[in-house]
Specification:
The chain is of the alpha+beta class. It folds into three domains: 34 residues, no CATH class; 109 residues, no CATH class; 57 residues, no CATH class. 35% of the residues lie in helices and 23% in strands. The strands form three sheets. Strands 5-6-7 form a three-stranded antiparallel sheet. A two-stranded antiparallel ribbon has the order 1-2. A hairpin with a 5-residue loop joins strand 6 and strand 7.
Amino acid sequence: MYERENYRDSTGKVKHRNTRYLGIEVTTNGEKQIIPPKRRFKEFEITKSVRYGDIAILFDLFKQYGLIELLNGLIPRRGLPVGEVFASLAINHIIDRETLNQFSKWYRDTALEELTGIRPEKLNSTNLGAVMKTCGKIGPEGTVDVCIELFNKIKHLEAESSTLIDDITSTYFYSTKMPKARRGYSRDDNSLPQINIGLVATKNKGLPVLFRTFHHEF
């Protein structure tokens, strides 16, 4: 029900218009009454706004397939947990790819603090480097074992028979003090030190099965 008023338009004709919404008219025990509308809060203050949708979906996938818990079990450490940190870094790499120096600032503007329980200031480049060092201590064989365990967690997604695809790429460096980077045959047509990377993945879902780094020397 609306409150109405009469007015004359430019031609002098009398017309009606609604001026105020009064509510809903109902009849109770033969008596009519108006139920006024509920008050709406017109003024509110935004205290925080974070990126949520795509962040929450990706983090939930890590949780759903047990990858975070698996990493925490395979690479236990004091301080920042490997699983939550790696999941956050992976999500960043998927959607934005910020540097480690900018990661804490990016993280602060997402829902990851609520999802992981880790405060943004804890994820500075020094602490992230410490997590990486912990992972490096397990060595190449330990890294392969972790990859195998991760693959076993998600291999059920590859429900159909699948062909394996082998892909090789390389990355080169301007630094001359990296022991694993050596000069050799270059796909980028330069003479800079490089590392070659081989990856075997399933055709249907693109699940990684095996990777190796190697070099081609002159």
